[in-house]
Fold this protein.
Amino acid sequence: MTKLENDILKIIKDDSRHTPQEIAVMLNLDEQKVKETIKSLETNGIIVKYTAIINDEKMNKDLVEAFIEVKVSPQHNRGFDAIAEEIYQFQEVKSLYLMSGAYDLAVIVEGKTLKEVAMFVSEKLSSLDKVISTATHFILKKYKDGRFMFDMESRLSKRVSGLRPSGIRRFFDLVNEHPDAISLGVGEPDFVTPWNVRDAAIKSIQKGYTQYTSNWGLAELREEISIHLNDMYALSYNGKDEILVTVGASEAIDLTLRAIITPGDEVLIPEPSYVSYHPCVVLSDGVPVPVKTELKDDFKLKPENILSAITPKTKAIIIPYPNNPTGGIMDKDDLEKIAKVIIEKDLIVISDEIYSYLTYSSKHVSIASIPKMRERTFVINGFSKAFAMTGWRLGFLAAPKEVLKHIVKIHQYTIMCAPTFSQYAAISALKNGASDNWSDIMAMRDDYDKRRRLTVHRFNQMGLKCFEPRGAFYTFPNVSCTGMDGDEFAEKLLDKKKVAVVPGSVFGDFGKYHVRACYATAVKSLTEALNRIEDFVQEYKKI
């Protein structure tokens, strides 16, 4: 064969969809010459036909395939051809090859089940006169079929493929399969975004304010955030270069970790705590190190627990208070105690304060307000919880300008800017909230407080030992008295009583025997859910 013929065959073999014109372009030849060569290859039987490679795993996900080796007795004057013709008549047979070695033929068989394939081998293939023996190998996974790569998953980053899907979202999906279920799962206010906030967004769209904003966010919004942080938490940040508007508090967490972590750096994460911290550290090439918090300590971070977790590789610590899922908070005295350790060990602090507006027994204190902590702290907050703006996806990050100017570079290249209409809405939320003495937030918090006390009372009454949360809108009862861990409890509760709670294990291993129940739902639904849980507990409770 000529070089031209080989070159053309190689292209066609890789992808037969290429036209003669395309082949001519690739080989820098005249199109007519390519057509003539292809015609000659077809005439001489070198190109027999053009086929499509089908991804059977996509098309027939439930089918079973097997590779079967067959030893046969060859027929006089016809060798293996006669028996081969007999075998390939079966509809189960997809491919058939003559091969060297201990076996004579290789057969690819397809069936709906393992049993169906096994029955074909025993009842049809093995029963043929010329078949001496067979060896069946079920195909478990295809890495390559011809030139089609089936296993794209194997080419993913190990950091990504090794991550567990969100346990919260898994249960959210399960609830969708039970439309009659009452959900105490996803942490989302059951209040509607205040009208003045929605109206501001509508008007911004009507006025045509639909362009990108500054990467930093609207200057007016950043100034309002600056005023708000000072008034509410005695934090002083310049709106011009010390506040970055982000797509939710989640982006702010991700940006901060990516900016400060170098491969191998360890980040201390209190557990139980929010599900995103661990994977965000991993995706930043860091190493998450859990720090246990316990019921006996009101789920507060203790200095001695921090000290025991610190190694020469420790770079940062996440301070997630008020806490999701426990509802624990850190008072000023608590923060001052751990601040001493943080300063002594020269750690960076990521302070997630998204629930700072929702505290019930005392006012929230930011660790950045503790002396010598501002310069080493990233303060993260947002509008989702306090203003019932979860779907608006708007948060912010406050930090010293020397470091924030670098963080904004990551934001520039990945997000560009937060949604414009959401930013105009947030301006209204802060301005009107301040002028109205935060009446909407206070009313929402008071309503949560009633539900909080009801929920804690009912859980303790039914025998599920429950810490009284002092912040956020979650309870974290211990379910071990039922003889189940949190995972089993949550799955059975949903199946039998149509109530959704989240297993405590998704918030870290220390939450194994707990479940998280969100009380941000209407009292009527909440009461009904608690009644169903009580019935369930009575059925399974160990005396």
Q: What stands out?
A: The mean pLDDT is 90. The domain at 167-186+440-540 is CATH 3.90.1150.10 (Aspartate Aminotransferase, domain 1). Residues 304 and 524 are 43 Å apart (CA to CA).
